[in-house]
């Protein structure tokens, strides 16, 4: 296996795109994070810049895998044929910013990277979160929920920016998948360890609610770790969205914020993204605390789905934390079908070893 690395300037990114995008687009549902982030950045420059770009080639020169990392976030990879993870880990061994941030993706891909990395460093892989990928089957629109959906306008910007900050705060402090890091079992040669519950999306009422009704889940755990958490352009000086430009910046990047309102009062919002390789992703979805437990989150999610389909999406997907029981039931009830697990892993130095001391590279944090 031959691993090629690319500069992150426009010329390097273009060269990587030419070889990597067909590999990623071969499985656009599973690779939705990478494809969507790349498309949004190409439209408007939104989001962190690429910090690591690589492709893997077989002995005949064919591209068999792709890898990328956005500054400040974990490595993402395409499907990895035999030998590709070892080749990547060896080539990227000295990129300390990369390994400090870890990796995110389908459990089998992350497990292959873990196996390749820790064998040479003795580091301890730690799972920060596991996410369930859901794909739309047949949409079931919630009934009996007060209010209607509408497209967000510029006038909604200050409110949605404030809600976005609330969403980020809830994820940071209350996200049920991140209270205590859990060491990752290093998988054996027979395959990855897919630790985590089986499909939690049972079609039953939540405690305290009659059959056919569900509580509003509040902050949507279906927004993934890393660069995709909320996805809004940073504001001046504080990394948060600029209230005056929130909606305009969202639309420039290809994101479609949708407001659910009751009697003219906004009570929840969700975001759908323009299709990338035919796949549109929903997230974040957020209901402020004072408006929760009325079914607004599933209602606005269904509205986002309709807009994604109208925009030409062949598939619509979202992610949930596997530990978040209520959202998993809600999304199952409105027609999403549970799929595979994604895992976010970081690497900690072994207690009796200093951090891996390979030659440093110019990779950004």
TrEMBL record:
Residues 174-246, 346-365 are annotated as: Disordered. Residues 212-354 form the N-acetyltransferase domain. PROSITE patterns: GNAT. GO terms for molecular function: acyltransferase activity, transferring groups other than amino-acyl groups. Residues 346-355 have a biased composition (Basic and acidic residues). Residues 178-190 have a biased composition (Pro residues). Signal peptide: none annotated. It comes from the Bacteria. Gene3D superfamilies: 3.40.630.30. SUPFAM superfamilies: Acyl-CoA N-acyltransferases (Nat). Pfam families: Acetyltransf_1 (PF00583). This is GCN5-related N-acetyltransferase.
């Amino acid at each position: 296996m031959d691993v090629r690395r690319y500069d992150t300037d426009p010329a390097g990114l273009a060269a990587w795109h030419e070889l990597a995008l067909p590999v990623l687009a071969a499985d656009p549902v599973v690779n939705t994070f990478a494809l969507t982030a790349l498309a949004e950045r190409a439209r408007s420059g939104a989001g962190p810049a690429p910090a690591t770009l690589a492709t893997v080639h077989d002995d005949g020169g064919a591209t068999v895998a792709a890898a990328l990392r956005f500054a400040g976030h974990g490595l993402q990879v395409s499907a990895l044929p035999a030998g590709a993870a070892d080749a990547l880990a060896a080539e990227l061994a000295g990129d300390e910013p990369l390994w400090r941030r870890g990796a995110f993706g389908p459990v089998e891909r992350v497990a292959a990277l873990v196996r390749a990395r820790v064998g040479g460093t003795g580091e301890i892989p730690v799972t920060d979160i596991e996410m369930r990928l859901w794909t739309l089957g047949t949409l079931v629109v919630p009934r009996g929920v007060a209010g209607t959906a509408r497209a967000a306008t510029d006038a909604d910007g200050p409110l949605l920016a404030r809600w976005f900050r609330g969403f980020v705060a809830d994820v940071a402090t209350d996200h049920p998948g991140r209270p205590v890091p859990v060491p990752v079992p290093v998988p054996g040669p027979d395959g990855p360890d897919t630790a985590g519950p089986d499909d939690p999306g049972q079609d039953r009422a939540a405690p305290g609610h009659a059959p056919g009704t569900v509580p509003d889940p509040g902050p949507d755990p279906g927004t993934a770790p890393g660069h995709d958490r909320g996805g809004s352009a940073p504001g001046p000086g504080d990394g948060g969205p600029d209230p005056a430009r929130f909606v305009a910046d969202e639309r420039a990047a290809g994101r479609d914020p949708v407001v659910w309102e009751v009697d003219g009062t906004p009570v929840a919002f969700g975001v759908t993204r323009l299709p990338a390789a035919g796949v549109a992703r929903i997230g974040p979805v957020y209901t402020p605390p004072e408006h929760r437990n009325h079914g607004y989150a599933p209602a606005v999610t269904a509205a986002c789905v309709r807009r994604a389909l109208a925009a030409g999406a062949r598939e619509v997907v979202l992610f949930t934390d596997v530990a978040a029981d209520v959202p998993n039931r809600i999304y199952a009830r409105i027609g999403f079908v549970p799929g595979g697990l994604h895992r976010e892993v970081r690497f900690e130095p072994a207690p009796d070893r200093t951090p891996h001391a390979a030659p440093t590279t110019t990779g950004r944090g």
